[in-house]
Amino acid sequence: MRIAQCRFSYQPLHHTFVDLGMSPLANAYLAAEQLNNAEKFYPLHAYISEDNLLVQLEQFETPDQIFSDYAYFSSYSATWLKHAKTYTDMIVDKFGLNPQTQVIEIASNDGYLLQYFVEKGIPVLGIEPAANIAKVAQEKGIPSINKFFGVETAKELVIQGKQADLLVGNNVLAHVPDLNDFIAGMKLLLKPNGILTMEFPHILQLIQQNQFDTIYHEHFSYFSFLTVEKIFAAHNLKIFDVEELPTHGGSLRIYVKHDYADNPIISERVSQIKAKEIAAGLHRIETYITFGEKVKQTKHKLLSFILTAKAKGKSIVGYGAPAKGNTLLNYCGIGKDFIDYTVDRNPYKQGLFLPGTHIPIFHPDTIRETKPDYVLILPWNLKEEIMEQMAFISEWGGQFVVPIPEVQVYSLPVRNLLSIVS
C-alpha cells in the first residue's frame, strides 16, 4: 500500500477508519462526449495508523493527475471570501504586516485571499499547482507561479530572494501525499522570525458531526491537533497557537514558528485543544475504528428519505457540485433516477456531469424554472448561504434537505426545521 509519507515512523495499516466502497475522483467532472466512456473507480478506504493516529487514504493517482487542471475556484463562495477578508484584517493587525513584509500562500487558488493583502499594499506571491486556476489569479493582477510545492520549489524561491514573513496554507495539508517534503519546504521558505498559518478540517468534527463525505481521493490525510503537532515538531517547527473555526464543517487554524524563535509565546489554547481532543478519545484507536457503523446508518436514512419522497411523486434536485457531494452520492448509490440534476454557481462546472453518477450540472436559475419539491444541499457547510440565495423556492412550497450530520428537512424561514428523518 502506498500512503502519504512523513518523517515520523509508520506501522502497517491494518485498521479501517471507514470504507466508502469504490468511487471516481471527486473532481473528475465529465463532458457530454465522455459519458459513454469507461470511467475509473478506486477504493475509497480510509485507514488509521496505530502508532500516530493519522487517518490516511491509499494513493492511486499522482498529484499531477488530480490537481493540474482543477475545477474548484474559491471565489464562488461568498462565505469563503468573507472568511478570507476577515483573516486578512486580523493577521495584518496581529503581526504588524506592512508594505515591507512578504506574504506567500501555498495553493493560492484564484487569488481569493491574496487579493485582500494586495488591497493593503502588502507584497504577495501565490503558489498554485492548477494552471487554469493560477491563470485566473494572474489575470486579477496577483503574482502567482504555477508549481507544486515542496523542497525543490522552496529552494528555487529562496535562491530568488523570496522568503515569507507570513506563509499561508488553507485547506492544502490534506491534499499532500508527501507530508515530509511539503513541511520541509515550508520550513525553508519561512523567514527566521516568520509566521506560518494553516487551516484544515478538524477530524474531531468529522467524527462527531459524521462528515464522512469530506473523505475523497484528493484528500490523502485527515488530522487531529495531537497528530499535526507531532508532524510539525519532526521538522523543528513549533505550533504556538490554534483556533477552532466553523469553516468546512469545523476546522483548525494553527500558528507555527521555527522552534528556535523565542516569540510569539505559546498560547493557552494549545493545551486546551489537546485536552479537548483527549477528552473526545482522539488519543485512542478505538474512537476511530467505530466510525464506519455511524456512516452506514446515515446512508440508510438518506436512501429511506429519498425512496419515500419519490414514491410520493416528489421531485428532487441538488444544489452544488462539490467534491464532498460526489463522495456522498457515489457511496449512497444516488444517481439520475433519484436526483434530476444539480446546479452550481461556478460556470466552469455548468454543462458538465458529476463523476460516477452522471447527474447533469446546470445554472442555479434552473431551479426557478423547474420548481422542484426538494433541493438537496450538497455543500452542507454553506447551507445558510445557499438557503438565503434560494429563498424563492418557498413560492411553490419547495423545501431544503441537508444530508449531514443526518438528514434534515427545512422550510422557510430557514431556521424552521421541519423534520429529522429517523
UniProtKB/TrEMBL annotation:
Domain C-methyltransferase: 246-405
Organism: Komarekiella delphini-convector SJRDD-AB1
Domain Methyltransferase putative zinc binding residue range list: 6-67
Keywords: Methyltransferase, Transferase
Keyword Transferase: yes
Gene Ontology molecular function: any one: methyltransferase activity
GO biological process terms, semicolon-separated: methylation
SUPFAM superfamilies with a match to the protein in the record: S-adenosyl-L-methionine-dependent methyltransferases
Name of the protein in its database record: Class I SAM-dependent methyltransferase
